Amino acid sequence: MIDESLLIPVNLLKVMGDRRSFVSGEPESDRLRVSYFKRIDNNTLAAKVWFGPGAEGLPGLAHGGSVAAALDEAMNFAAWAAGYAVLGVRTVTNFKQMLPLNTTATVETTVTAVDATKIGVQCRLLADNGTVFAEAEGMFLSIPSAKFGVDAKKVADMFTALTQP
């Protein structure tokens, strides 16, 4: 589990020009509430995700689609925080444990591969006790950030510059 003292809050949607998000765009939602952080020990992106009653799949459990959506967004933002403007090509989510509603879990991300056009990212969703709820890996296409109207290098520079927890 991540030591909370190593986390610095970061609002990537604001840094990217006050963008909106299907997953994390409603901080008072009854479905998902997502907060992003920089880990100062390894300069990676982490997230805290609350799965509320609106994310229900089977009775009392978070819908797998809500879990997959949260992991997909976190991987996408991890690539941006590393300086790569990306568009998802493929994501694979492996569900390990049932996720009870009203649970707040932590997403840890890692950029695993970089070549001329593809960025690989992995992540996992953990309970406070270390239980792994899900793991995911994604392949993202690196495209010119100007297509989004956002400078990916500036996003990464801002992310790297964060130093105070």
State the main characteristics.
165 residues, alpha+beta, 7 strands
Record the strand order, biggest sheet: 1-2-3-5-6-7-4
Average predicted confidence as pLDDT: 92
Largest sheet data: 7 strands, antiparallel
Order of helices and strands: EHEEHEEEEH
The tally of beta strands, per DSSP, is: 7
Principal-axis shape equals globular
Percent of residues in helices? 10-25%
CATH architecture: Roll
Q: Which range does the strand content fall in?
A: 35-45%
What is the CATH topology? Thiol Ester Dehydrase, Chain A
Measured between the Cα atoms of the first and last residue, the distance is: 17 Å
Structural class estimated from helices and strands: alpha+beta
Radius of gyration: 15 Å
CATH class bucket: Alpha Beta
**Number of domains in the coordinates?**
1
> Please, what is the CATH homologous superfamily?
Hotdog Thioesterase
Detail the poorly predicted runs. Answer: none
Number of helices: 3
Please render the helix and strand layout as text.
Layout lengths: L6 E4 L1 H4 L16 E8 L4 E8 L12 H18 L4 E10 L7 E12 L3 E9 L5 E11 L9 H10 L4
Antiparallel strand pairs: 1-2, 2-3, 3-5, 4-7, 5-6, 6-7
